[in-house]
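Re: zinc ion structure - here you go.
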Amino acid sequence: MSADLHAQARTLVDRNQMSGISPAEQAWLEDHLRQCDQCNGYAELTARAIGGLGSFSFSMDPSLVARTQEALTRRAREMEAERGRHRMYLRGFALACLFTVIGSVLAWQGWAYVAQRVQLVPWEWQLGFSLFWVLPSATVAMLLLVGLALESNRIHERSLA
Ligand SMILES: [Zn+2]
């Protein structure tokens, strides 16, 4: 007998337990099981396993189910809030960088003009420009980056816990 026939017989045994098979398939399977000890053994084992499952009953405490669902929902909301803060820091950092660059480019012209009028030497007005324009916005960007790093760290720690 070919291996295909045994495989087909076992597939039919499985399907018979789950969704049922046609009368023709049933007849073929019974015929095969009479001739084949291996498949017959498989069919018996399957029937016994399914029977065992049937006598197995699950009893669940409804309050436990409710508490578990509540904890899962709360955790999902917390994670959503953490992600929201993370995005806010990231956006703030990007904006601060953008303001530093665009602001510097725009302010540079005006600053150079004023510096010329008040007759500052180049290193003086370049230093002044750095201190009064670039430094504050760069500081804001750095603070946001630190906040972002701390937040990421916290999320990472929480997910490990
Ligand atoms: Zn067989």
